[in-house]
Amino acid sequence: xxxxxxxxxxxxxxxxxxxxxxxxxxxxxxxxxxxxxxxxxxxxxxxxxxxxxxxxxxxxxxxxxxxxxxxxxxxxxxxxxxxxxxxxxxxxxxxxxxxxxxxxxxxxxxxxxxxxxxxxxxxxxxxxxxxxxxxxxxxxxxxxxxxxxxxxxxxxxxxxxxxxxxxxxxxxxxxxxxxxxxxxxxxxxxxxxxxxxxxxxxxxxxxxxxxxxxxxxxxxxxxxxxxxxxxxxxxxxxxxxxxxxxxxxxxxxxxxxxxxxxxxxxxxxxxxxxxxxxxxxxxxxxxxxxxxxxxxxxxxxxxxxxxxxxxxxxxxxxxxxxxxxxxxxxxxxxxxxxxxxxxxxxxxxxxxxxxxxxxxxxxxxxxxxxxxxxxxxxxxxxxxxxxxxxxxxxxxxxxxxxxxxxx
Amino acid sequence: xxxxxxxxxxxxxxxxxxxxxxxxxxxxxxxxxxxxxxxxxxxxxxxxxxxxxxxxxxxxxxxxxxxxxxxxxxxxxxxxxxxxxxxxxxxxxxxxxxxxxxxxxxxxxxxxxxxxxxxxxxxxxxxxxxxxxxxxxxxxxxxxxxxxxxxxxxxxxxxxxxxxxxxxxxxxxxxxxxxxxxxxxxxxxxxxxxxxxxxxxxxxxxxxxxxxxxxxxxxxxxxxxxxxxxxxxxxxxxxxxxxxxxxxxxxxxxxxxxxxxxxxxxxxxxxxxxxxxxxxxxxxxxxxxxxxx
Lengths: 407, 293
Description:
The complex is a heterodimer. Chain A is α+β, with helices and mostly antiparallel strands. Helices cover 20% and strands 19% of the residues of chain A. The longest helix of chain A has 20 residues, at 300-319. In chain B, 72% of the residues lie in helices and 0% in strands. Chain B is elongated, with a radius of gyration of 26 Å. The N and C termini of chain B lie far apart (68 Å). Chains A and B meet through helix 1, helix 3, strand 13, helix 6 and helix 7 of A and helix 1, helix 2, helix 3, helix 5 and helix 6 of B.
């Protein structure tokens, strides 16, 4: 007897990635030969490689998760649904380091490798995770000729009002990071965007092997084995970044995570974090990252913003602010500019140019994911709040943070 | 002074935060407070700056005032920079902000000059650009060292900047200036032969050859692939530049062609098994694994 296990409800091997959020899955008998009865009880478990991720299961859309689930599966080929999620606190370090197995009694009848793909603290990545990430990022940049040029061109002077200084700041950047992350995953699916937790020392980020070490002038130097040595933006080689703090410590003056989450329980108060810690994290450096129009020239920008998004995610969790229909989840105001209202589509993914929008829309639609459907090719502001699908499962965006639980 | 509306429209939810920001700004701009208190308060001030002309002007006043402690002025600059991320609210005061930056671009404090010129150059400010070019031509007028001037000019490269970089390259005052001149010229399409020559020169510093490899890849990718291959095959070349060359091939090379290049694969195999530092050897092994070896 053989069975097929479909992760994220698709046979596509590229969809074999899960996070803390339950992924809908299916199991069906593809070869009934040797089946003892028209319906067999199959036990589904996860087997973790040493140091690898771990998964948990449940049979329905609600209920407790367990290390295994036993399902009655017809031998006539009918699919039976179940759910799998990463076990919180045990993310993967390599692609396929967890195997989901189905057994009939003690007989293995089917298995698939999966990855618990989670956004992690960049300071604590393994060497392998770090190397894969910088390799994918360097390829995306490809000397300024690659797809990264679109991401650079999305965040320039003319487009800043789409993304900054208004309520859409956090949703826009959530979409921006996700789009970039999906492009990185198209190069190497094992990569997740890491975050720079700027309220803690992160010395491992500012090394020649990772995001580079700055000399006194602020020119970032990379190891000979680091492909980011070929980084180029706007036709200019390299990265200019001069830390105004000792990189063995956290930058001074920034609100801590606890202080940021405590800014207020309503979104209009919370979004003032655009100044501190967000703005202060940027201005903790001289160089490209210091100024809004040039900040994405430095790849560190994306780790900084990943932490900003993580802070929002944790604030959302603490205060239950995933539902766009709840007023406190957003700053709805009749004076908001287009692109900053909940039902508005966001530039550039909507392709709208001219008028209140920039004259061009680089990059096209949001990159699709083989794992999830949200937020869709032309995300609206309201599509970027319920990133875990806490209010509606189809809204899950397919990413999670190592320290932000689901429910 | 630009006229603008105060953006007090977030209702009660944000009022406590805003009140706290205004209180912080009051401390930050008060000469009666200690430097430490003022610097700490600057971190909470960006919100007040973007929402009130009066508060913005107070902050710009601190930045302009040469009698203020330099630590406070630098903190004011950082706070204004953080406020500038609130682009929509900051839009109408950008003019005053940039005008103040131009006023302090020749401040006696070198750190403040450097930071201000950096911000202006990232705004592609013609005033700052002229000051930097003038300083390169006439060191007596220089506001920052030549290496810093070249680095800042790279935010808005054009023919005049290339000419200044070539002049520095012909007679570099120090290694930093030479390196930054080369980085700037890496955007100049006519500089490919220069970088090819530097990459092949084994007497050059590793960092210069690394810059040359990166520049050549941008200006003439096929040539870089060719030269990188030669360096890996050359038993007498240095391990670090071999590692850079290998990284160029691994990341940007044509995998199909590389996989068939037995001479290259054998050289990489020798490199991976030789006396090179461990992380270079790991890179070699990763490269070989890609081609099933």
